[in-house]
Design brief:
The chain has 20 helices and five strands. The chain is mainly α and 506 residues long. Strands 1-2-3 form a three-stranded antiparallel beta sheet. Helix 13 packs across helix 14 and helix 15 crosses helix 20.
């Protein structure tokens, strides 16, 4: 009967429809999200996995709650060559060396991720804290002797001559250090940054530990500043070409001072930045941010002190940070960043994904600072809003998670298709459970060169990624594209926490 009424009277039908739509709108109000589109990915799942990865990189005595169970204790006597305890910490990538420089940067970036977005992480916050503490416990050991920092355990050349599980290591666990006679301001100041940043993470939950971290950070930074030099000068044969300090140590001194200023609020560090900023290259136009070059990170971090805390003397850092942002935005007058045909930021062929994750983190973090201060970025007349920065960051993360020409996730264990043959000794060789007998140094190379998938899934590991043409061969021997690293994952943790929260997944 209703249908005949509406067909005979279109006006009544329209009135009825309009009234019904009003009633429905009032009953079910539209949910306005910051992102108009539905999420294309499960960012919460990716966040969980990005943190879980660090458990697969652990060195030392593993705890009872270890979740990546194909790993076992390793490197328990690390440091004994120098009569010190250096057990613990992380293997930085797919080998079995503990490099202090990238480990410290990883710790700083994990801590920054928690400082900015930990409040959004819900159940993953404790896992993130544990990942940080695994590193800081080690860094405290490495800096226990005043005037000395142990910066590496393992002879990289000898280690790379083997393909063996960390549990089977029989290569020399040589220990390398910096001191007054062989300084390393870069690794020392990065270590100070890591300890200072981590002190903020534990300030409320473990104030005693937090105070220990910040006191050590102060001492280590004093050493870094007083005895200046690049650590790869004195340790060139041991740290190069693996983690040479190519950008010098000035960027780390600025970065370390910025973190100590944030952690202590001591005007000494603000004064240090004001007096030394230009000397240390604060206005340099290098727009690379990673384990070696911290200039961009320092600019973004110090811009917060101006934007949010209204520290007027740091006004210039807003301009320095804006210049970096403008270099990334396609189509603006100052754009200089390169992107693959599929839309991925491309810096270099070796482990390019580290620049994707670090850049994405800086974009969402700077967007947060700009939003707090009601500011935008002006790129030669083109206005760039915080929303635009978040959109660019999301696009990079989405590419990493599978929105790319190959429809492949570059995070192991996430999505339907991901790398099967990552350049990672422990993942590629049979586990202790399935093969209890020792695998000798060179016998593992037959596995390394094979086409068989890795038997152990290193969940959450993000690999170096595709080349400039969006190609990815998934070859174990191709370390440039197939090797994961802690410093690829650490900034991604913050971006994923932000995205998971903004789409209501946390």
């Amino acid at each position: 009967m209703a249908s005949s009424l509406f067909s005979s009277s279109p006006v009544i039908f329209l009135l009825f429809s309009f009234t019904l739509s009003l009633l429905l709108c009032n009953a079910f109000p539209v949910q306005h999200h910051r992102h108009p589109r539905f999420p294309s990915h499960n960012y919460r799942d990716a966040l969980t996995k990005s943190i879980l990865f660090f458990e697969g990189q652990r060195s030392g005595k593993l705890p009872p709650n270890q979740r990546i169970t194909w790993r076992r204790d390793s490197g328990l006597s690390d440091g004994s060559a120098m009569h010190v305890d250096l057990a613990g910490g992380y293997y930085d990538a797919g080998d079995n060396v503990k490099f202090g420089f990238p480990m410290a940067f990883t710790t700083t970036m994990l801590s920054w991720s928690v400082i900015e977005f930990g409040g959004l992480m819900k159940g993953e916050l404790q896992n993130a804290r544990e990942a940080i503490r695994w590193a800081t416990d080690y860094l405290l050991k490495a800096t226990a002797q005043p005037g000395t920092i142990y910066v590496q355990v393992g002879d990289a050349n000898r280690d790379h001559a083997c393909w063996e599980r960390p549990e089977d290591m029989d290569t020399p666990r040589s220990v390398f250090k910096i001191d007054r006679n062989s300084p390393g301001s870069d690794v020392a100041a990065e270590t100070a940054a890591a300890l200072a940043a981590a002190s903020l993470v534990f300030r409320r939950t473990d104030p005693t530990y937090s105070k220990l971290l910040v006191r050590r950070a102060i001492r280590v930074f004093e050493f870094a500043d007083k005895y200046r030099g690049a650590y790869s000068n004195g340790l060139k044969k041991k740290v190069c070409p693996f983690y040479c300090s190519y950008s010098g140590y000035e960027d780390e001194l600025l970065w370390g001072a910025a973190w100590l200023h944030k952690a202590t609020k001591n005007p000494t560090y603000l004064n240090y930045i004001q007096v030394n900023g230009q000397i240390l290259g604060a206005d340099e136009t290098d727009n690379t941010f990673g384990w070696d070059n911290k200039h961009v990170g320092a600019r973004i971090l110090l811009s917060k002190a101006f934007l949010v805390q209204k520290v007027q003397s740091l006004h210039d850092y807003k301009g320095h940070a804006d210049n970096y942002i403008c270099s990334l935005i396609p189509g603006t007058p100052f754009s200089s960043a390169q992107y693959t045909p599929g839309g991925l930021l491309f810096k270099m062929s070796d482990s390019n994904m580290q620049y994707v994750t670090s850049t994405s983190f800086l974009l969402v973090t700077y967007a947060k600072y700009l939003t707090s201060a009601h500011k935008v970025v002006n790129c030669g007349g083109a206005i760039v809003t915080p929303k635009r920065l978040r959109t660019i960051a999301k696009k990079q993360v989405d590419y990493l998670l599978g929105d790319n020409p190959l429809k492949m996730s570059y995070m192991v264990g996430y999505g339907a298709r991901y790398p099967q043959r990552i350049h990672h000794r422990g993942s590629s060789l049979p586990s202790i459970t399935s093969h209890p007998a020792k695998i000798q140094c060179s016998s593992g190379f037959s596995v390394m060169k094979s086409q068989s998938p890795n038997p152990n899934i290193l969940i959450g590991a993000v690999v170096g990624g595709p080349d400039q043409h969006d190609r990815f061969p998934d070859q174990r021997s191709d370390y440039e594209q197939s090797e994961p690293a802690t410093y690829i994952n650490s900034p991604l943790v913050g971006s994923l926490a932000y995205l998971a929260h903004s789409f209501g997944q946390l």
